[in-house]
Amino acid sequence: YDPMNPAPAYAVSSSENDNSFPDYAYLGKRCDTISFCTEPLREAVTVAGTITMDLFAATTAKDTDFTCRIVDVFPNGREFMLAQGLIRGKWRKGFFVYDPIQPNTIYKYSIEVGNIGNCFLPGHRIKIHISSALFPLYDRNLNTGEPSGTCDHYEIAQQTLYHDALHPSCIYLPII
Fold it and tell me: What is the structure's pLDDT at 18?
């Protein structure tokens, strides 16, 4: 994650005359984003409620952010964003519990992705994007651990995500 090239929170329509929804497919292809996607659905899947993600990760930085975006992938490949959320490393235990992270240490991050009500139709896919920025919706994390309002430098961070028996990263989808 490079704070000088943060992953954007929003996609844009393909042209000014395009009245369709913004396509998020290109955001999932950035080198600082990893995506996970289902196979095309054989039947409709309705998701309604609060989506959360437990992510086990480590960073080389003194602080960093982790994000999760859930998208509905249409059969033509267009991706419609349904919800997205972010957690800052040093505030991973809550906004009133400052707990600095140690570089290269695995932590569990619980990301509140958001509330949705969506029916994923047959042929569609359920996809998530994980990155370290939702800019400009959230300020860039400069990865220094210092207050971002007064910090005049930044660090590029190498992020490592874990998913194994000891580190069961997962997303919770309230399927009806």
Answer: 60
